[in-house]
Design goal:
Layout lengths: L4 E5 L15 H10 L4 E3 L5 E3 L2 E6 L5 E6 L13 H14 L1 H8 L1 E8 L2 E6 L6 H5 L12 H4 L16 E3 L9 E6 L23 E5 L4 H9 L5 E2 L7 H5 L4 E4 L6 E7 L9 H9 L3 H8 L6 E2 L18 H4 L3 H10 L7 E7 L5 H14 L3 E7 L1 H7 L13 E7 L27 H12 L3 H18 L2 E7 L3 E4 L2 E2 L14 E2 L2
Parallel strand pairs: 1-10, 1-11, 15-16
Antiparallel strand pairs: 2-3, 4-5, 5-7, 6-7, 8-9, 9-10, 11-19, 12-19, 13-17, 13-18, 14-18, 20-21
Helix pairs in contact: 2-3, 8-11, 9-12, 14-15
């Protein structure tokens, strides 16, 4: 039987390989290919066991005992053991926002035997399975103990998982191609695939990610049969794709995406909350959405940190997003003591279809009120590395950077590191506010939707006061693929590659 190769054009280049080292969607997609998780979120947002065979909760609801499935192996042929999972969870919890919250009420993680381990809490914590199945970066991917014991804030050097595909490092060409091969010893679950849960059946023998930055080149490759799936075509190409009988278009993430403006909180001017608040008053969401998406049928303004259309949506404290006022923004910069002649550095990923147009809008709005903006062009992969720098702008640092996330990821204050205010242990930009961190834990411990909504409103109000980050609106995108490809799953997040089939 001939080998099946699925060729995929991703939205960006993959350069970072450690899923704990980056929150970028491209790294998360890479992670889901080669690593597995203890639990997976199904298409109805319910956590389902993945690597776990059985979970037993103690009568006092403080101890979770997990037993692993039979037949789990690492890509190097070694069996997956409980000690691997405990080491992986410890590394994840040290780095991830939800893991850090869980750690605050965790007493210990302990290995019982080769297949069994426990999480013991000081008091009942109702978000354990939700945390273990989260799709917001950073994700608790399981790794061998020897790799998981790497310092959480340093890059791993081996990329060995137990997922349905194996990363072929020797075939990796940064900026050009990433290659994965089917892991023959992977034992999928028996349940049907459902988003990030169920049976992860690897139907393709080989997956190649081909980095094609030019939209017309990618379009020609898809129409010519040189590639099978294209992740993020521009909306102006939708009529062409829909008019081509051999091409299908689908929306994988019906919850949508949210654009974001992040600050570097540790160097001027955005070490001052008034300067950060100023950017809220300078934000015209419609202008951003027109630049990013361009089709009102696919976008909506949303004056909420938490994606609109989900239970935690709230505009508490966010009047600035509903009625932008550039003059007020200018006055706040003056109150922050900022010298308007000094340059503000914005990282501009010219090859990224969301962050680049958003950057253009921000730059114009800032220049309109007299700010001096230094736009530094680079590719997205370079931005992902450089945004980790805490240096002054004169030494490779930065002030502002744009990004975007899946809507499900930002539907609560807990799932995403986007909402972290854990200082140097949190998200790039290093927002630092104990009150916000306490509100995140308060939300996690609150019982019932109404109680959680109230805490979300508190977080939102404080989020503006501290100028945590600016939500720029939301939209939906689509994916295009050959009609020879079937089995694409709706995930309400990034696309996944299990269940996909390619006909001859």
């Amino acid at each position: 039987m001939a080998e099946t190769t699925l060729r995929f054009v991703p939205h960006a280049d993959l350069q970072a390989l450690d899923p704990m080292g980056s929150t970028a969607d491209i790294v998360k997609m890479h992670g889901f290919l080669i690593y597995d998780t203890l639990y997976g979120l199904d298409e109805t947002f319910v956590p389902q066991p993945q690597m776990v065979k059985e979970m037993v909760l103690s009568q006092d609801r403080k101890t979770y005992r997990f037993t692993l499935r039979d037949g789990l192996k690492w890509h190097d042929g070694q069996p997956v053991k409980a000690e691997d999972c405990v080491a992986s969870l410890k590394r994840w919890a040290a780095r991830d926002a939800a893991g850090q919250l869980m750690n605050r009420v965790l007493s210990e993680m302990k290995v019982v035997d080769d297949k069994t381990f426990e999480l013991v809490f000081k008091e009942p914590y109702g978000l354990v399975l939700e945390s273990l199945s989260k799709v917001a970066s950073n994700i608790p991917f399981m790794m061998p103990k020897r790799i998981a014991e790497t310092d959480p804030f340093k890059e791993i050097e081996e990329y060995v998982g137990s997922g349905p595909y194996r990363f072929v490092k020797e075939a990796w060409v940064p900026g050009n191609k990433v290659v994965y091969e089917k892991f023959a010893d992977y034992v999928p679950r028996s349940e049907p695939a459902s988003a990030f849960a169920g049976g992860k059946i690897a139907n393709a023998d080989r997956i190649e990610w081909l980095v094609i930055r030019d939209q017309q080149t990618a379009l020609s490759a898809l129409l010519g049969g040189e590639v099978d799936v294209w992740e993020n075509p521009s909306l102006d190409l939708l009529p062409v794709l829909q008019a081509t009988p051999s091409i299908k278009t689908e929306t994988v993430n019906k919850t949508g995406r949210q654009a974001l403006l992040f600050f570097n909180h540790v160097i001027p001017p955005f070490d001052n909350p008034k300067a950060r608040q100023a950017m809220f008053w300078l934000t015209n969401q419609t202008a951003y959405l027109q630049a990013i998406n361009g089709n009102p049928d696919f976008f909506r303004t949303c004056a909420s940190f938490f994606i609109c259309g989900t239970p935690m949506e709230t505009d508490a404290g966010l009047d600035a997003l509903k009625a932008p006022n550039p003059e007020k923004a200018k006055e706040l910069f003056k109150e922050a003591g900022w010298d308007f002649s000094r340059p503000i550095v914005i990282l501009d990923p010219t090859d990224e279809s969301v962050a680049h147009p958003a950057t253009v809008v921000t730059v114009q709005a800032m220049r309109d009120i007299g700010l001096n903006v230094d736009v530094q062009a680079m590719d997205w992969a370079t931005v992902l590395k450089r945004r980790n720098s805490k240096e002054q702008t004169s030494n490779g640092g930065w002030n502002l950077v744009h990004s975007s996330v899946g809507g499900q990821v930002v539907s609560t204050p807990v799932w995403s590191i986007t909402y972290s205010a854990a200082c140097e242990k949190g998200i790039f930009g290093w927002p630092c506010d104990q009150q916000l961190e306490d509100l995140r834990l308060k939300w996690a411990m609150a019982e019932g939707v109404e109680a959680k909504k109230a805490v979300a409103a508190e977080y939102s109000t404080r989020g503006f006061e501290t100028g945590h980050h600016v939500p720029l609106g939301q939209w939906t995108t689509y994916l295009a693929h050959s009609d020879k490809v079937s089995g694409l799953l709706s995930t309400n997040d990034v696309p996944v590659f299990w269940n996909l089939k390619k006909a001859d």
